[in-house]
C-alpha cells in the first residue's frame, strides 16, 4: 500500500468515528472545515493563545485534505476569500490603497468569472453547479442564444445543439429560424 492509500484510510476512519469537538459540527461539515477548525482549536488549546500562525498551519492541513475530498465550490470560495484577505492585509500594511466596498467588488468579480463559465463554457461546469444555476434562474440560463457565441471559439452551444431560441423579428437583424406566435 502506498502512503496516499494509508492516509486516505486513516482520514476515512477518523471521519466515520472521529471525536466531536465543541467548535466543530463534523457530521454536518466536511473534512476541510473539520481540519481548519479542529487544528485552530487544538493549537489554541496547546499554546493557550490565539495566533495567526494557527491559521497558516490549519490552512496547510486543510489544503492537504483537499487531495482526498475535492470540492470545487470550496476551492472557489477560498480563492475569493484569499484575494479579499490579501487585499485587507495590504491595506493594514500600507501597501494597497483603500477602496470603499472593495470586498463587494472582489465577490462580484469572482461571481462574474463563474457566470462567464456558465454562459460560454457550460461543458466545463460540474453538473451539480449547472443544476443549481438552472434552479436559481428558473431555467433561464438554458434559454440563451449560445449559437451566437460560437464565433468566440468556446463551443458555447456544444451542449445545446438542438436549441433554437424564439426571437421576436421586430428586435432582430436576421430573420429568426422559428416562426413566432404573437398572441
Q: What's the layout of helices and strands?
A:
Layout (H helix, E strand, L loop, with lengths): L2 H15 L13 H17 L4 H14 L6 H21 L9 H19 L6 H10 L47
Helix pairs in contact: 2-3, 4-5
What's the total number of strands?
A: 0
**Level of helix content?**
40-55%
Task: Provide the succession of SSEs.
Answer: HHHHHH
Give the low-pLDDT segments.
17-28
Query: How many separate domains?
Result: 2
What does this molecule look like?
The protein has 183 residues and is mostly helical. It folds into 2 domains: 1-70, no CATH class; 72-183, no CATH class. It contains 6 helices and no strands. It has helices at residues 3-17, 31-47, 52-65, 72-92, 102-120, 127-136. Helix 2 packs antiparallel against helix 3 and helix 4 packs antiparallel against helix 5 (102-120). The N and C termini lie far apart (69 Å). Residues 17-28 have low confidence and may be disordered.
Can you give keywords for this protein?
183 residues; 6 helices; 2 domains; mainly alpha; 0% strand
Provide a compact summary of the structure.
This protein has 183 residues and is mainly α.
Amino acid at each position: 500500500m502506498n502512503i496516499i492509500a494509508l492516509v486516505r484510510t486513516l482520514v476515512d476512519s477518523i471521519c466515520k468515528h472521529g471525536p466531536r469537538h465543541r467548535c466543530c459540527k463534523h457530521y454536518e461539515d466536511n473534512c476541510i472545515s473539520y481540519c481548519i477548525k479542529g487544528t485552530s482549536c487544538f493549537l489554541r488549546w496547546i499554546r493557550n493563545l490565539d495566533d495567526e500562525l494557527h491559521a497558516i498551519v490549519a490552512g496547510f492541513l486543510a489544503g492537504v485534505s483537499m487531495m482526498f475530498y475535492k470540492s470545487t465550490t470550496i476551492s472557489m470560495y477560498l480563492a475569493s476569500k484569499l484575494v479579499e484577505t490579501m487585499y485587507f492585509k495590504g491595506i493594514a500594511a500600507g501597501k494597497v490603497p483603500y477602496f470603499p466596498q472593495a470586498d463587494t467588488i472582489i465577490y462580484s468579480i469572482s461571481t462574474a468569472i463563474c457566470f462567464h463559465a456558465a454562459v460560454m463554457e457550460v461543458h466545463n461546469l460540474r453538473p451539480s453547479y449547472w443544476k443549481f444555476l438552472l434552479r436559481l434562474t428558473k431555467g433561464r440560463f438554458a434559454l440563451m442564444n449560445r449559437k451566437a457565441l460560437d464565433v468566440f471559439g468556446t463551443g458555447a452551444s456544444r451542449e445545446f445543439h438542438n436549441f433554437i431560441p424564439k426571437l421576436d423579428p421586430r428586435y432582430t437583424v436576421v430573420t429568426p429560424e422559428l416562426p413566432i406566435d404573437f398572441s
